[in-house]
Amino acid sequence: MKKKDIKLMTCKDYTVSNETFELILDEKLDMLRTSPKPNKEALGKYYESISYISHTDANESLFDKVYQIVKNYTIKRKVRLLDSLGAEDKKILDIGCGTGDFLEACKNKQWKISGLEPNENARSLAIKKTETVIHTNIEELIEGYHEPFDVISMWHVLEHVADLNEYIGYLKKLLKPNGTLIVAVPNFKSYDAAYYGEFWAAYDVPRHLWHFSQKSIGLVFKDFDLEVVKTLPMKFDAYYVSLLSEKYMTSKSNPVKAFYRGFISNLKAKQNNEYSSLIYLIKNKK
Questions:
Q1: DSSP symbols for the chain
Q2: What is d(CA 205, CA 207) in angstroms, rounded to the nearest whole number?
Q3: How far apart are CA 277 and CA 212, in angstroms?
Q4: 130 with 103: CB under 8 angstroms?
Q5: Confidence of residue 70 (pLDDT cuts 50, 70, 90)
Q6: Continuous segment of H or E residues that includes residue 176
Q7: Is the pLDDT reported for residue 74 higher than 80?
C-alpha cells in the first residue's frame, strides 16, 4: 500500500457477487479506489445481472417504470445542455451509450452521432434505435477514427474504466481543440454518501473502480491540459441512489425514507454544491 493511501471502509457488491471490497483513499488526489481491482477478463462477470438497468429497456416493475420516466426527462435536459455548447459541426461521441436513447435524441436534433458500448445486448438495442455503428471499445476508435469530436459525453462511465490515465489520454486524442468533454460521476463527498456509508449504492463495487470528489476530477484532467469550466448537479440521482441504499442498509425499499434522504441531500448541496452526482464540463485547452 502506498504511503498516502488509507483504507476508508469495506463495501459489499449487492448486485451480483456479494463479495466485499475495500475503498482506499488517495489523500493527494482526494479520490477513492476499489481494491482489489478485478482484472479486465474477470470484470465482465460483475455486470451480468438483470438488475443492471442501464443495459436494458426494462419497463415491468414500478421501479423500472419510474426509472424510464426519469431517464426520458433527463435525456431532454442533456440534449439542451449539448445545444447550449454551440458546437460548430455538432459531432458527438457518447461513451457507454447503453441502449442508445440519448444518442437517438441527439440524432433527432441533427447531431452527428457516434457511440461506444461494451455490453453486447445494450449495444444491439442501441444500433437498432440509432441506425449507426456502435463501437465496442475505445481502442477500436483510436485505431480507426481520425476526425476528432466536438463533444464527448460520459454519463456515469469514468468510474468504470480500468486504467484512468490511459483512458483520459484516449479522450484527449479524440476531442477537438477547445472541444468539450462532459463527465457525470457520483460524488462521495455528498450528504447521502456520508449518511449511508458502506451501504451507499453509488460505491457500486467492483463495477465502480474509482470514486471522485470535485478536487480529484480537476486534478486528474489537469495533467492532460483538460480544464473543468463548469459543474452542474444531477438532482435526481440523490433519490435514486438513496432508494437503493435504503434497500442495502435495511433489506427494505423504504421509498418514503429514501425520498426524505434524497431531499435532504439536495437541500444541503444547495449550500456546498456537493450533490450526489455532478456533471463536469471540461474543455480541451490544446
A1: --TTEEEEEEEE-TTTT--EEEEEEETTTTEEEEESPPPHHHHGGGG--TT-GGGS---SSHHHHHHHHHHHHHHHHHHHHHHHT--SS-EEEEET-TTSHHHHHHHHTT-EEEEE---HHHHHHHHHHH-S-EES-HHHHHHH--SPEEEEEEES-GGG-S-HHHHHHHHHHHEEEEEEEEEEEEBTTSHHHHHHGGG-GGG-TTT--EEB-HHHHHHHHHTTTEEEEEEEE-THHHHHHHHHHHHHHHSS--HHHHHHHHHHHHHHHHHH---SEEEEEEEE--
A2: 5
A3: 10
A4: yes
A5: confident
A6: strand 175-186
A7: yes
pLDDT at 47 exceeding the cut of 60: yes
CB 22 within 8 A of CB 35: yes
Scanning the structure block, which residue is given the C-alpha cell 456479494?
18
The number of CA neighbours under 13 Å toward the Cβ of 220 is 25
Measure the CA–CA gap between 29 and 2, rounded to whole angstroms.
13
Q: What is the pLDDT of residues 177-193, one digit of tens each?
A: 999 999 999 999 999 99
DSSP, res 235: T
Residue 206's identity, in one-letter code, is P
CB neighbour class for 97 (10 Å; exposed up to 12, middle 13-18, buried from 19): buried
- Region 83-102: mean pLDDT is 95
Going from N- to C-terminal start, the domains of the chain cover 1-44+186-280
Return d(Cα 257, Cα 61) in angstroms, integer. Answer: 20
d(CA 16, CA 46): 6
Higher-scoring residue by pLDDT: 88, 171:
171
- Smallest CA-to-CA distance from 171 within 208, 225, 125 is with 225
Name the phi and psi angles at 86, rounded to 5: 65, 35
Q: Structure pTM?
A: 0.92
